[in-house]
Amino acid sequence: MDSIILYVLLGATAGVFSGLLGIGGGLILVPMLVLLVGLTQQQAQGTTLILLTAPFGLLAALTYYQSGYADLKIAAILGIGFFFGAFLGAKVAVSVPNGVLQKVFGVALLVVAVYLLLSK
Q1: From first to last of its 120 residues, what are the pLDDT tens digits of the chain?
Q2: Which of 36, 46, 98, 116 is the most buried (most CB within 10 A)?
């Protein structure tokens, strides 16, 4: 039971960050859509979030599953939290000024980069 709660909370946290910052694949796409295409931060995030609702990653997920690297039960439980977390994050993101949201997104990218660079 504790693991289910943990998975829901982790899913909710991932969902909030995904909905708020568009990081569901958006670490590359969001900056490119803003800098190269000229979309606003909100437009870039909303566009990349469509990737989460369509089966674009189905073949990759199937490959991981067939290789024994995907747990469907955990994914389903995480999905519950993600569903509501992404909604909450998106509600916040569309009400934040573009410049502020870009700065928050940039800080999130820096935090991830520093963590990855300093981890073993």
Answers
A1: 788 998 888 778 867 877 787 665 577 778 887 888 888 999 988 887 887 777 777 887 888 899 999 899 999 999 999 899 999 999 999 999 999 999 999 999 999 899 989 998
A2: 46
Please give the Cα distance from 108 to 27 (Å, whole number): 10
- What phi, psi does 110 have (nearest 5°)? -65, -45
Give alpha helix (H) positions in the chain.
2-21, 26-32, 41-53, 58-66, 72-93, 98-118
**Alpha-carbon gap, residue 3 to 84, rounded angstroms:** 18
Which amino acid is it at 93?
A: A
DSSP state of 55: G
